[in-house]
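User: Show me a protein chain along with its predicted structure.
Assistant: Here is one chain, sequence first, then structure tokens.
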Amino acid sequence: MKEGPAPKFSPPKASIRNIFSRLPTSIWVLGFGSLFMDSSSELIHSLLPLFMTSVLGASMVVVGVIEGIAEATAAITKVFSGIISDYFKKRKLLVILGYGLAAVTKPLFPLATSIGWVFTARFLDRIGKGIRGAPRDALVADITPAELRGAAYGLRQSLDTVGAVIGPVLAVVLMVQFANNIKTALWFAVIPAFITVLLLVIGIREPERGERGLKHLAPLTFADIKRLSLRYWLIVLLGAVFTLARFSEAFLVLRARDVGLAIGYVPVVMIVMNLVYAFAAYPAGIASDRINPRSLLIAGLITLVASDLLLATAAAMPWQVLAGAGLWGLHMGLTQGLFSKLLADAAPLGLRGTAFGVFNLVSGVALLLASTIAGLLWTLLGAPATFFAGAVFAGLTALGVMAYRPPRAT
């Protein structure tokens, strides 16, 4: 039987203000919790590559391996936390535990005296991220009406990214204030991290079992994994390929330093990236509720290609690195909330935590591979090779998305 004509996507019927008012309070609490924690984490992350290379003497390969392992650790942990949150049908405790562990690791960074110490702190911090990630994303789906999921994920991501702007801004101010003393600047990341934990303990309301269809769900079993559809696994595969097309943002920081930006102003590259990301994520989330997701994915990949090309050809022009970082942020805004929405829509109600966990595991392994390759290319062939390779892979991925046609209904 021939497939009917593609459905037309209707224009938005509600204003952004109406959407704001319809989103549950807990979405805002999760968003502001992410804002404070990301301001803490990005203060550290915008200085950490410089700390590892200029203070502790790490090579680019070591930076790539540490960043890749850190993100892969978070991804692996998300599988277990997602499954646990599905089994007990309780997500708030895991969310708070994950943010709490991340908070207690923040003092370890300024105390570090070796690469091994940094690796340990980064490892524990990412375990915290892994514990909270899948339960938090599943909780967003649990408490948000289906027609507002894209907006909810976009809002949380926008607020998260506002924090990712604040962190590097603080890093620049602190580096100027304390004469480029990185360790002193890192200490200021501790305060917003603990504010996050307090905010979540007080403000998060988890839905009761009788809400949104949760009442009749039986405890999770391993056999339930079979309920994850082919559509879901295709999204997982697409997410992995997409992740291979990019690598850790640590290389953006190192590229800024490589082209001659003064060490105290290197965090500006993260400010630009995250500022664009913050402005793009919420509108892109609203758009994902109304237009074909393929269009957003292709737009994100094309933007990533442009970003990589600018970063590869920057030479001694810091403005070009900043422009490339801005496009990097735009591609993140167009795609990251979209993947969360696609997963929430494809996963069965009782398997949302598991679905997000598995997705993040596969994407984390892909990020480990991508970051390790990026470090090797930088070391062997120079910084431009790293970004040219990213552009080629992102371009091939875009061609694959454009060429793919879902099977016709029969």
